[in-house]
Design goal:
The chain is α/β, with parallel strands linked by helices and 202 residues long. It has helices at 14-25, 33-42, 46-52, 80-98, 108-111, 127-138, 142-164, 185-201, and strands at 3-8, 28-30, 61-63, 65-66, 69-70, 77-79, 101-104, 118-124, 176-179. Strand 4 and strand 5 form a beta hairpin.
Length: 202
Amino acid sequence: MGVITIGRQYGSDGRKIAKELAQRLGFKFYDKELIRLAAEKSDIPYDDLVKADEKRASVWAYPAMTDNVWIAEERWYYSVNDVLYDTEKKIILEKAATEDCVIVGRCANRILKDRDDCLSVFVYAPMDFRIKNVMERDSMSEKEARARIRKVDKQRRYHYNYFTDRNWEDMDEYDICIDSSKWSIEKYAKILEKMYQTLKEE
């Protein structure tokens, strides 16, 4: 099996690069799909989990669950963020062990850090490039796009740092970091494809 994880700054086109790479390699692609799978495993509504996805811990809590049995009578609660992270972690480990896949975000690079067949990538870009992307994609003003980028990056940074005790934007956390403003999505996907295939041949 082989797996590639893609961390990304908001508006950097990291998701698009990941999807294009998965298509080129013929790998399964996991991003928001992980939330749906987590909803099925945890019996928590999908919409509730979306609110907690890659965000800072919430005071809203669910009873803890052991072996799929809710411990409601115990005064032991997880935040919904903890429930989502723990469930997604199990799914990520399961998918990496059973199929070739590209996984976006969700601390996957740290979760799979002990696997020799995992290539971890971080996609970043200058703020001006990201603002333009978000403005065009979401029909926002420059001010709105800048605020959205800062908010989402802050949430992802807190989420990653909280659950991994590491720094989300520390380049030592990843095998390769790319500035997506330099070339096209297709070119980056092609570069990463060749890199991954070269690593597999070693």
